[in-house]
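Extended Data, record DUF2599 domain-containing protein
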Amino acid sequence: MRVLLAVSTAVFVALLGAGPAGASPAADPGADADPPFVGHVEWTQWRSLTSLRIYPTTSGRTAAGHLGPRGAADEAWAEVLALAPDADSVGMHAQFMCHWNFAEIAQPGKASWNLEPWRPVVDDVAMITSACNPVGAEVRVPSTTDGQF
């Protein structure tokens, strides 16, 4: 089952990056996006847990979701770290890359991409299947019935 899921995810990712036959990289609308890719960030609480909200610029939204060279993604992550140095961790980077690659496809125009330092580090398949929000068994996410939103 895990192999089937990994193959399905790999095919999905490949299809997302595939353009029309004969299309050149210049045809990619994200290829011409210029920094800054991040407008601002904000540390906040979500259901009593720490969360970093990343607010992409229009250019960031244009560049995001285009699987190809990682230059723009790396530049965007550097912008996040310049604004929130405490975000520098493997898990936060993985969540950011997942949001960068898929958020504008799954939820175009979502106000912010939210990263949480308490989320576990997982492999790419688990990250994608959890919609960039992995939760491990050791993490208890309070429900809205706990009085937190």
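Summary. The chain is about 40% helix and 15% strand.
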